[in-house]
Amino acid sequence: MHKKVNFKHSDASLKKIFQSMYAYDLAVLYFDFDEAEKKRFLSLVSLSQLSEVFIELEVEEQLDLLNQLEENQKKALLRKIESDDLKEFISDLEEEQREAIYKLLSQVKAKTIQLLMTYDEDVAASIMTTDFIQIQIDSTIKDATNMITTTSKENDYIDGIYVVDDEKRLVGVIDLKELIIARSTKKLEDIMNEDFHFVYDDESIETAIQTIKDYDRKAIPVLDHEDRIIGIVTADDVFDELIENVEYDYQKMALLNDHDSTSSAWTRSMQRLPWLMIAVVLELFVASFLSIFEATIIEVTALVLFQPLILGMAGNIGTQALAVTILGFNTDAFDGKKVPKKHVIKEVTVGFMNSLMLGIASFIFVSIFLSIVPTGHQVPYQIAFVVFIAIFSSMFISSFLGVMIPILFNKMGTDPAAASGPIMTTINDLVALVIYFGVATLYFL
């Protein structure tokens, strides 16, 4: 729960309140401040805390915050923000807005941001930060300690110090703790770790994430192909990327492209309506297709009772297989566009086993139900047998499609997450109903 801010308090009281709050909570509250409250807030909050609040805001709110500041305040704020966070902000702006921001930055920082913008968004270098410390291998322990205490900037990552040779190639990493407790007579070579993990600038973000996860690293260096360090990817960068990927894939699975939590109800409605209209058309197609089985439904009305069961179970198992497959692509468990045969075999086997067991369970339950509540002149076990065949077949096919459709989309170069949502649901409905009423038609008519 977020605190409420009463602006009737004195400046001194408000300043203490702001200091006691987390940046995220302040960012949530900032959206609801009126113009007068925003100006007062900006005049009382510290620059360090304001930079943290800025990172938590949406782009529109970030621009609004900047517009509330004088030019010298804008420069101070942007100088305080880390390069990778600043790059994320600038990448969402129009070209004219970007140029205005570049003018507020130092030449070095502006060039750094522009360099980061040149990398493809799916490579490790696109999320790296350039705020790190490197030192020559012929430096002394005293030199390294002095560099950290006197020349490092507030934004610099200092938990690891990166050691380079005369040709700027990375040769080792020193843990800050090791540097602090090292005797001054030791050399950097004595305390640095030469067996470090890294990624190249053109390797995927997934590779960086997996490396940090597998080897439990707080940060890993990003190297060019001449082994020179150009940046680092931290655990915080990975965490932010994972959150962004989850949100993106969830939106894709629900067919909610470009979802923005601050957008109006009308905007959200217009974003979702086209896909829902497609689903309506497909469902109408399914309904018209069922007219083929009209005679079967009239003859065996009890079939209608179990239609939701068939549709629900087919949809559930298909969604599970779909989710596991998409997760495999997102965690880089699969090798590019190559079909992961082991995964397919395992998921198809799981689908077969679950479909068979649930089909048998449905046969038993339907037989008992129709024995207690008889419907029509058919023998209960006959309808139960049709339900068994429909449950088993539709679930097995649905689980198979849940695996194969994302793989097919991936081979075509399309985001696998786009394989789900209303479209996938409609396909499952069509397959399940055709099997259900098709089997009933062959059995009873």
Describe this structure in words.
The protein has 445 residues and is mostly helical. It folds into three domains: 11-123, MgtE N-terminal fold, CATH 1.25.60.10; 126-233, Roll (CBS-domain), CATH 3.10.580; 265-444, SLC41 divalent cation transporters, integral membrane domain (Tetracycline Repressor, domain 2, Orthogonal Bundle). Helix content is 63%, strand content 7%. The protein is built from 20 helices and six strands. The chain has helices at residues 11-19, 23-30, 35-44, 47-56, 59-67, 71-80, 83-91, 95-104, 107-117, 141-151, 176-181, 188-191, 205-215, 235-253, 265-290, 294-299, 307-330, 341-372, 380-411, 422-444; strands spanning 132-136, 157-164, 170-175, 199-200, 219-223, 229-234. The strands form two sheets. The protein has a three-stranded mixed sheet with strand order 1-2-3. Strands 4-5-6 form a three-stranded mixed sheet. The protein is elongated, with a radius of gyration of 30 Å. 30% of the residues are buried.
